[in-house]
């Protein structure tokens, strides 16, 4: 038996849906306190994993341990310390934010009237919903609704926060503030943030995992991963029609448009020459390298195939 | 052609959903079942062919009404598909016009529904032709029948419903609105339409408001069509049906037009409804309520205060209550509930006054009486309260799906709340809602009472009945609905399944399932009486409810185990989850529920199957068949008749038991020796020590211990007599599947000899009358009533033996026991009271015993003691009753002959009935009679009349002139009693009061009914006995004269009143009437009695002008015709040359109600139009033909007209 002195430990979790889609394939992760980023493209299995952690789904096999709790079998215990912000959620359109938050406070076991008042007010102020607390939720904008979701998730000082693609509907300013809020939370609990936006992770998370097609491709600390890739990423501006040629010759990881020209990033351990120059490595390169199979758990296998 | 494309797209979408096919199957099955389980039996009875056009019409409307509850999702989805799937931003912005978009969607829904409707004829065809029905009950196939019922009924119904459901859903942007529209239409069709049609005044509206033409078709089947029409008349689009269709076409087009003009291709926003927008308009100048800085404040650090979380039992209770209140608020806020509630309250106001009126006399709205209209058991689908379970079903769906519908299920699901908290909270919320409804019902009841001037509100009884009894019924159903919703986890399919379950609960007995241990939520009913409270009914009710509450507990456990809070909806994973949840308290609850089910169920089973005989319908039928087959030979064999009865009856009210010892004296009144006696005891009642005073051998009968044949060693010779001694022990042991018996009660014991005592001879009433059942069990055909011309039947006495009667009845010291005969002596001994009764003349062998804490009121008439035994506070009609009895005794004695006995009693016993029932020396009545509350007794004293009527039975049918049990017997009993009772009413209160009564009972003409009937001489139904018969006699008395008609009755009584066979029939009456009728009126006697005649008399117009000598010349243009209609409905117009009254009237004199007669003479009237001119001395106001409605005429109002004055 391993020692679970920290956070969350996920062991060999697999999940296959009835329609044959393999959402999670033998996922094993250790998630300590602090912000943890779960990065992956759409359909990678992020939400499935998040829902499993939030006690709303059951894996086919595997085990999950939160401190001393068995997440899969002690659901009610887990829920007592859980904050969950789902990827998509609705609200009761005819209820005011204050009332609904009050309601959830009771559901979260905050039965003392005074304490409930205090925390509801604090959360509404924190999420800047205080001025609109009496307004019906049906009239809220996407961002306000998302902040309301955060307020609900924060009720009851959760030890485990699960935040599923929270920045999807937010404008840039709101996104920044939201991430700030999350990072402060990460100081005393485990916050798992799933996203397909690399910046979310690079700006916040001390640890991260990249997931694709249900498999963990990389489990790393963002800074270290960026450092490891330093010097292996090369870039070049090319004409659009030259792309096919380049793609055949090099391990292209991204192509982007910049001022009407195409910028190509390739992975190469040596200098490829041919007009390529060193690129400033960032987490996005780590992500795409991993996805392309040049980096991470799967890279060794991938290289065998390509070479 | 975008419309066509939209149509096709929607059509395909719908065809791909399982529910559409499910609806098709449901209609197919329902029409199939109605035909095979109901109409096939009717057809075997020879009542109607199984594929008669009207049957197909009725099955069609029935299925349509069912479909309203089931199939609303078709229109709902078509109207809201885009909003529900959130596709609307894409579709709304496409270049499609509103007409194309809505039109295509609507047409698709309509066509789908039209296709679903095809299931009805399909189901019928399968039931008729692929079901191996016997060819004899199937009529020829006529495609017109099916086409008419599809195109005149089903298709328009589909159109109306689709239009209204689609409109509501499109405008509210919610598929649920369509469901509610369906509910509303159901309410109009099934509840309001029938309710309005119950009252004769508003029947036209009932036909109109019913969008499915449900009551129109049902009326055709039950009362309007003649037998010939039933099997032949194709449903045609005319009359009420046409108007109904046109009306609803208008409504549907208005709804669609409204939808077209109001629908917007716009994003649905909160508060997009009309009245919300109005509210917002007023506030619009306020600045938008946006926070000053947007987003999460970055400057302040996140400092969420630390709070204590509690998860103990107290916290869970608090959570439960919170969820309950939130759920309650959700239901209370939904306008649907309020809308329906208002309707329910309105309905109560419509219905209750109708029901608290008995022949034009209001009844005291005593709470227990009112509550019978305000409540209905779950198993009864015939009352408007069916709307409550349907609403419960709908609300449970909303509650169970609330989080998921709002998209909040994941947040709630991850909250630390136990499943049972969620479940119980929601259930409690619904409970609160139901309590509010019931409070509303209670307030409605109190308002009705206030409105009727009654202010003795028995709040306790309201609470007991509504919140004790009714609420539990509804909650049991609600719990079932919860479980189905949780289990099925598909909103619409769950709703369909609940509906099927509800159908099972209400129609289980029709399906052959009668054991109440197998019908969820059922009980043996309850009743409340002022005399005996709930009596034993409540205890039995409680046992059954405890049993079902235990089941409900188990269901609740199931719902908890399978409660869906996660994304996992697969069966396997839910099962695994359930296994994981099955621990701790849940296990204990399960154990408790199961052990309760077993122990209480076992106790009930012990009561219904061991302590009491369990009689299912099929067993009862088998017993009757067996009885008839074994003993039918006794029916026409001379049997000894009972001429003396001596009984020692001990009633123990507190122990609900009675012991009886008795002796019958039998005499052979026939001309041949009798060698065997058929003695039947009551099954389930212990009868023992049967001793004959001569040697008799008991022939043991297989599997039937209750009916015994004793073969006498020495036959009983003609004129000889013998004695039989017996003892009966009756004890109410527990309860049976039909409830606790109600013979011996703590207060209000009432039983007759037939209930407990052995009887001699063949009991014809025990034969099965149902034709198809008789055929099925190989019994010879047996008419419901023997033919009038069956001479043998006139010698059959049945219960008409004339016996001397003597009884000593004992009961508790604080009660009075009543039996026939004069009270010889009463005494107390060992804490009990004894009453010794002896009759001074023989009585027919039907008598009753009573015991209760009666108040007794006594007067004398000549040598007869007249007594009323009544519940202490039921005194309102005492004077009327005593007056009625005395006046009637005096009048009948004068007119028809002496009253044979020296006592006359009126005795009250528990029950809701408002009529009375007569036996020799005794009239018994239920508590409903005591509620009669005539406003002005001098104007219209109905209790007086009813007593006079029942007293008349002492001459006609109960004590003297016992008619043979053949066709027409009704005339000799009921028609005589009504007719002679009317005379007493007239004698006491005058002609005006009589006319008021006649107007009341003439209203029964106005109810549309088939004219087809047997002639009065063979009268077979209530209408003929109580209405047509008395009217015929009344007409005769006006044409001939009252004294001579009474003389004929007196003659009849003198010749046939002895009770000795041959017993009299209407033929004997007819002979007497013929003898007193002058030759010129013999035709009238024939028309009234020998054939079924309907006159159609009408005054077209009346003019009058003054003559020179100060008189007025009146000219009437009248029309007349006469039809004879046979029992199959074939009409024959017969030429008239009839004496009919022509009357001319002026306004009533001061203080009088009836018009003053200026002229009233009989004229010879022929068929067709004719003009009559006559002269009257004063200025006329009204004139007409047969103005007093002496002849049978369906339209009584057109007989006379207001006079037009000419100069």
How would you describe this structure to a colleague?
The complex is a heterodimer of chains A (307) and B (1207). The radius of gyration of chain A is 22 Å and the shape is globular. Chain A has 307 residues and is of the alpha/beta class. Chain A has two domains: 8-219, Rossmann fold (3-Layer(aba) Sandwich), CATH 3.40.50.300; 226-306, no CATH class. Mean pLDDT of chain A is 83; it is low at 1-5 and 300-307. Chain A has helices at residues 46-53, 75-79, 97-107, 113-126, 142-154, 172-185, 198-204, 222-229, 243-249, 283-292, 299-306; strands at 8-16, 22-31, 34-39, 61-66, 69-70, 82-85, 160-164, 190-195, 207-212, 215-220, 233-238, 251-258, 261-267, 277-278. Chain A is 34% helix and 27% strand. In chain A, a hairpin with a 2-residue loop joins strand 9 (207-212) and strand 10. Chain A has a six-stranded mixed beta sheet with strand order 6-7-8-3-9-10, with helices on both faces. In chain A, strands 2-1-4-5 form a four-stranded antiparallel beta sheet. A four-stranded antiparallel beta sheet of chain A has the order 12-13-11-14. Chain B is of the alpha+beta class and 1207 residues long. Chain B folds into four domains: 2-265, no CATH class; 313-608, no CATH class; 612-782, Sandwich (Immunoglobulin-like); 1093-1207, Immunoglobulins (Immunoglobulin-like, Sandwich), CATH 2.60.40.10. Chain B is 49% helix and 17% strand. Chain B is built from 38 helices and 31 strands. In chain B, the strands form seven sheets. In chain B, strands 3, 4, 6, 9, 12, 14, 15 and 16 form an eight-stranded mixed beta sheet that branches. In chain B, strands 18-19-20-22-21 form a five-stranded mixed beta sheet. The termini of chain B are far apart. Classes of the chains: A alpha/beta (307), B alpha+beta (1207). Chains A and B meet through strand 6, helix 3, helix 4, helix 5 and helix 6 of A and helix 15, helix 20 and helix 25 of B.
């Amino acid at each position: 038996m391993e020692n679970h002195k920290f956070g969350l430990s996920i062991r060999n979790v697999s999940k296959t849906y009835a329609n044959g889609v393999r959402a999670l394939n033998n996922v094993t992760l250790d998630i300590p306190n602090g912000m943890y980023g779960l990065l992956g493209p759409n359909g990678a299995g992020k939400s499935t994993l998040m829902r499993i952690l939030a006690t709303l789904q059951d894996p086919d096999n595997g085990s999950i341990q939160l401190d001393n709790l068995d997440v899969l079998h002690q659901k009610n215990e887990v829920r007592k310390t859980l904050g969950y912000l789902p990827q998509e959620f609705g609200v009761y359109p005819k209820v005011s934010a204050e009332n609904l938050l009050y309601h959830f406070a009771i559901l979260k076991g905050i039965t003392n009237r005074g304490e409930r008042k205090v925390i509801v007010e604090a959360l509404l102020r924190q999420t800047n919903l205080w001025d609109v607390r009496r307004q019906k939720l049906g009239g809220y904008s996407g961002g306000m609704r998302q902040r309301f979701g955060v307020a609900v998730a924060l009720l009851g000082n959760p030890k485990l926060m699960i935040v599923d693609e929270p920045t999807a509907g937010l404008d840039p300013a709101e996104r920044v503030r939201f991430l700030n809020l999350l990072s402060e939370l990460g100081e005393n609990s485990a916050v798992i943030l799933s996203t397909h936006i690399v910046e979310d992770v690079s700006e916040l998370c001390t640890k991260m995992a990249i997931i694709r097609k249900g498999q963990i491709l990389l489990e790393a600390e963002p800074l270290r991963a960026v450092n490891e890739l330093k010097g292996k990423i090369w870039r070049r501006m090319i004409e659009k029609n030259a792309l096919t040629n380049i793609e055949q010759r090099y391990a292209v990881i991204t192509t982007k448009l910049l001022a009407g020209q195409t910028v190509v990033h390739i992975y190469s351990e040596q200098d490829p020459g041919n007009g390529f120059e060193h690129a400033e490595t960032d987490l996005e390169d780590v992500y795409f390298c991993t996805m392309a199979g040049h980096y991470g758990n799967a890279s060794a296998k991938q290289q065998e195939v390509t070479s | 052609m975008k419309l066509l494309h939209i149509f096709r797209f929607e059509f395909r979408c719908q065809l791909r959903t399982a529910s559409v096919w499910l609806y098709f199957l449901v209609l197919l099955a329902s029409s199939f079942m109605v035909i095979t389980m109901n109409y096939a039996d009717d057809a075997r009875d020879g009542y109607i062919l199984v594929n008669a056009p009207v049957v197909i019409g009725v099955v069609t409307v029935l299925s349509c009404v069912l479909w309203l509850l089931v199939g609303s999702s078709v229109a709902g989805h078509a109207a809201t598909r885009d909003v529900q799937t959130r596709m609307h931003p894409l579709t709304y912005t496409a270049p499609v016009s509103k007409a194309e978009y809505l039109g295509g969607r609507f047409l698709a829904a309509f066509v789908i529904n039209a296709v679903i409707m095809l299931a009805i004829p399909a189901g019928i065809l399968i039931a008729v032709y692929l079901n191996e029905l016997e060819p004899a009950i199937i009529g020829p196939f006529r495609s017109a029948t099916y086409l008419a019922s599809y195109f005149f009924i089903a298709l328009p119904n589909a159109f109306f419903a689709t239009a209204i459901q689609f409109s509501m859903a499109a405008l509210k942007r919610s598929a649920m609105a369509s469901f509610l529209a369906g509910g509303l239409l159901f309410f109009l069709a099934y509840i309001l339409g029938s309710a309005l049609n119950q009252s004769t005044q508003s029947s036209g509206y009932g036909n109109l408001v019913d969008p499915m033409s449900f009551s129109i078709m049902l009326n055709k089947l039950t009362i309007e069509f003649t037998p010939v029409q039933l099997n032949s008349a194709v449903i045609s689009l005319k009359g009420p049906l046409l108007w109904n269709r046109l009306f609803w076409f208008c409504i549907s087009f208005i709804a669609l037009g409204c939808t077209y003009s109001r629908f917007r291709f716009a994003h649905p926003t909160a508060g997009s409804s009309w009245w919300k927008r109005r509210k917002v308009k007023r506030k619009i100048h306020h600045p938008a309520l946006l926070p000053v800085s947007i987003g999460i404040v970055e400057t302040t650090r996140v400092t969420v205060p630390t709070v204590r979380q509690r998860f103990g039992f107290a916290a869970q209770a608090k959570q439960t209550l919170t969820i309950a209140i939130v759920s309650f608020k959700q239901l209370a806020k939904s306008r649907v509930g309020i809308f329906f509630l208002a309707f329910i309250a309105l309905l109560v106001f419509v219905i209750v006054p109708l029901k608290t009126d008995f022949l034009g006399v209001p009844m005291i709205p005593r709470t227990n009486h009112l509550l019978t209209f305000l409540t209905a058991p779950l198993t009864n689908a015939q009352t408007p309260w069916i709307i409550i379970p349907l609403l419960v079903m709908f609300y449970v769906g909303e509650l169970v799906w609330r989080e998921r519908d709002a998209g909040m299920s994941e947040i709630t699901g991850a909250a630390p709340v136990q499943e049972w908290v969620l479940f119980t909270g929601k259930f409690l919320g619904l409970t609160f809602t139901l309590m509010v409804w019931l409070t509303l019902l209670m307030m409605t009841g109190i308002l009705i009472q206030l409105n009727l001037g009654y202010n003795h509100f028995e709040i306790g009884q309201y609470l007991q009945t509504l919140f004790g009894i009714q609420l539990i019924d509804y909650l049991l159903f609600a719990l079932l609905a919860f479980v189905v919703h949780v289990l099925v986890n598909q909103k619409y399919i769950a709703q369909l399944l609940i509906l099927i379950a509800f159908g099972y609960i209400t129609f289980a007995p029709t399906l052959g399932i009668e054991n109440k241990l197998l019908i969820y939520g059922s009980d043996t009913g309850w009743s409340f009486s002022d005399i005996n409270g709930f009596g034993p009914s409540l205890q039995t009710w409680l046992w059954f409810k405890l049993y079902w509450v235990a089941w409900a507990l188990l269901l609740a456990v199931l719902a908890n185990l399978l409660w869906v809070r996660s994304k996992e909806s697969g069966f396997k994973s839910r099962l695994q989850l359930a296994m994981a949840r099955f621990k701790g308290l849940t296990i204990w609850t399960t154990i408790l529920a199961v052990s309760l089910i077993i122990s209480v169920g076992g106790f009930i089973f012990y009561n219904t199957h061991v302590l009491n005989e369990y009689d299912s319908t099929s067993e009862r039928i088998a017993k009757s068949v067996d009885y008839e087959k074994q003993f039918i030979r006794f029916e026409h064999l001379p049997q000894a008749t009972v001429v003396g009865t001596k009984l020692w009856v001990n009633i123990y009210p507190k122990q609900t038991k009675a012991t009886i010892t008795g002796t019958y004296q039998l005499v052979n009144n026939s001309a041949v020796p009798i060698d065997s006696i058929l003695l039947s005891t009551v099954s389930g009642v212990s009868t023992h020590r049967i001793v004959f005073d001569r040697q008799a051998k008991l022939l043991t009968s297989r599997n039937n211990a209750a009916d015994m044949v004793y073969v006498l060693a020495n036959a009983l010779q003609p004129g000889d007599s013998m004695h039989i001694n017996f003892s009966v022990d009756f004890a109410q042991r527990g309860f049976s599947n039909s409830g606790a018996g109600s013979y011996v009660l703590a207060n209000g014991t009432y039983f007759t000899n037939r209930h407990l005592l052995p009887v001699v001879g063949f009991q014809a009433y025990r034969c099965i009358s149902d034709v198809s059942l008789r055929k099925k069990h190989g019994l010879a055909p047996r008419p419901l009533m023997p033919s009038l011309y069956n001479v043998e039947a006139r010698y059959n006495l049945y219960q008409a033996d004339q016996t001397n009667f003597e009884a000593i009845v004992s009961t508790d010291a604080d009660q009075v026991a009543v039996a026939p005969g004069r009270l010889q002596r009463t005494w107390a001994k060992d804490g009990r009271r004894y009453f010794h009764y002896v009759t001074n003349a023989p009585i027919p062998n039907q008598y009753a015993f009573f015991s209760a804490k009666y108040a007794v009121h006594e007067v004398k008439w000549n040598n007869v003691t007249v007594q009323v035994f009544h519940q202490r506070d039921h005194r309102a009609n005492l004077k009327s009753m005593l007056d009625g009895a005395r006046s009637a005794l005096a009048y009948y004695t004068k007119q028809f002959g002496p009253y044979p006995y020296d006592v006359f009693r009126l005795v009250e016993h528990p029950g809701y009935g408002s009529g009375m029932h007569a036996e020799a020396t005794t009239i018994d009545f239920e508590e409903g009679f005591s509620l009669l509350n005539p406003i002005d007794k001098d104007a219209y004293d109905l209790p007086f009349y009813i007593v006079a009527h029942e007293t008349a039975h002492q001459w006609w049918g109960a004590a003297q002139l016992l008619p043979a049990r053949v066709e027409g017997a009704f005339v000799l009993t009921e028609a005589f009693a009504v007719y002679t009772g009317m005379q007493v009413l007239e004698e006491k209160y005058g002609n005006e009061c009589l006319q008021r009564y006649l107007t009341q009972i003439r209203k029964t003409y106005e109810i549309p009914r088939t004219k087809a009937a047997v002639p009065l001489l063979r009268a077979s139904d209530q209408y003929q006995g109580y209405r047509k018969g008395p009217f015929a006699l009344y007409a005769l008395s006006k044409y001939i004269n009252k004294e001579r008609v009474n003389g004929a009755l007196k003659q009849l009584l003198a010749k046939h009143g002895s009770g000795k066979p041959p017993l009299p029939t209407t033929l004997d009456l007819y002979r007497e009437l013929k003898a007193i009728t002058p030759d010129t009126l013999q035709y009238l006697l024939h028309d009234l009695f020998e054939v079924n005649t309907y006159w159609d008399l009408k005054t077209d117009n009346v003019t009058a002008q003054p003559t020179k000598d100060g008189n007025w010349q009146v000219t009437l243009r009248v029309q007349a015709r006469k039809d004879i209609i046979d029992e199959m409905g074939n009409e024959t117009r017969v030429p008239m040359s009839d004496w009919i009254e022509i009357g001319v009237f002026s306004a009533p004199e001061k203080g009088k109600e009836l018009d003053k007669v200026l002229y009233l003479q009989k004229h010879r009237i022929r068929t067709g139009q004719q003009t009559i001119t006559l002269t009257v001395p004063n200025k006329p106001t009204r004139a007409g033909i047969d103005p007093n409605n002496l002849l049978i005429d369906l339209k009584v109002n057109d007989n006379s007209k207001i006079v037009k004055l000419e100069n």
